[in-house]
Amino acid sequence: MSAPVLGKSYDRPASLDAPRAPRGGGNSNFEKYAWLFMRFSGLLLIVLVLGHMFIMLMIDGGVKRLNFGFVAGRWASPFWQLWDLTMLWLAQLHGGNGLRTVIDDYARNDQTRFWLKTILVVSMILVMGVGTYVIFTFDPNITG
């Protein structure tokens, strides 16, 4: 359906023309907590990412000093492992939650919505799993 504006018509998202009733049974607060998570994780991600970029790009020579040895020294510290792990997990969960909302808004078919969310969850688990594995099993003593 199109809405006329000054003699022209523009396509509107399907979700605006035929909004669906809220899903779920009863008194679920999932959407409220997902909304709150987005706000708090976004704030924390700003701190983590800006701190990461400042340390990587601005301090002590900037990008020129970034190499395998720098990463090895950084991940030798549990503090930096936890920093990077928190950044990875929050970014994945924050982005996945946002994409889940987009899927709910624009996927009209229940089966399509199910498969898109399944692919989303599987890819999130894979990225978080592999990333966590790399952070905690990184070996600076690689033999070539």
TrEMBL record:
CDD domains: SQR_TypeA_SdhD_like. Keywords: Heme, Iron, Membrane, Metal-binding, Transmembrane, Transmembrane helix. InterPro entries: SQR/QFR_C/D, SuccDH_FuR_B_TM-su. The keyword Iron applies. The keyword Calcium does not apply. Gene3D superfamilies: Fumarate reductase/succinate dehydrogenase, transmembrane subunit. It is found in: Membrane. This is Succinate dehydrogenase subunit D. The chain crosses the membrane at residues 33-59, 114-136.
